[in-house]
Amino acid sequence: MENVTVSVILPVHNGAATIGQAIESALVQKVPLEIIVVDDGSTDDLEGALAKYARLPQLRCLRNEKNLGVAASRNRGVEAARGEYVAFLDADDWWEPGKLTAQLQVMRRRNMVLSCTGRELMRADGSSTGRSISVRDRITYRSLLYHNCINCSSVLLRTEVAREFPMEHDEAHEDYIMWLRILKKYGEAAGLPHPYLKYRMAANSKSGSKLHSAGMTYRVYRYMGYGPLPSLFFFVSYALHGVWKYAGAGHRMRRSG
User: pTM of this prediction?
Assistant: First the structure.
């Protein structure tokens, strides 16, 4: 394909049941795009789920010989991207129509390298919980230290910046580290409050255990170069935001953000 504006990076490990909805939500975006599926060692019928899209020129599928983890899989997709921008989308999430267009308009108008959107919290079966989480219009490095409001599946990012700051440390929140590093250099990200992202919540994922997720978040601050006491200070703020953010949702957090 030529003249690709956005490369959608879609890592998947055993996501055959939901990946079709994610792909369809990308295909309806009114933006020239490609979809790069990175199969991270799936053992379910992912090949069967992707068969109906096999002839689409927008779709490419990369397969890891073994399970490498989400950070390495996203990085592999970024390296293969042909678009000016990359958008991350997990196999169990999906987008509203118009998401990428709205983000491109804001980023170009404000000359920003990164944007994110609000999200609607969905149950595992895809039905809405009736709750949405918004984002601020401007997100700074300092504000992000206290609260990671950037959800990975909502992000649109300039490709060269994604290559400059690849995701690292699967044992922490690899996406949170990436956003912090980017904003430390580039200053601000644009936030679109509308819940363009439909975020499927589940309790059995990487950060499903709140205690485990807490340890991952603390390690983020240590990886960013902060000592034990400042890291604890930022973690407490992060935890308080998390309690408020998910109060009444009836589910545990699935991933960082």
Answer: 0.88
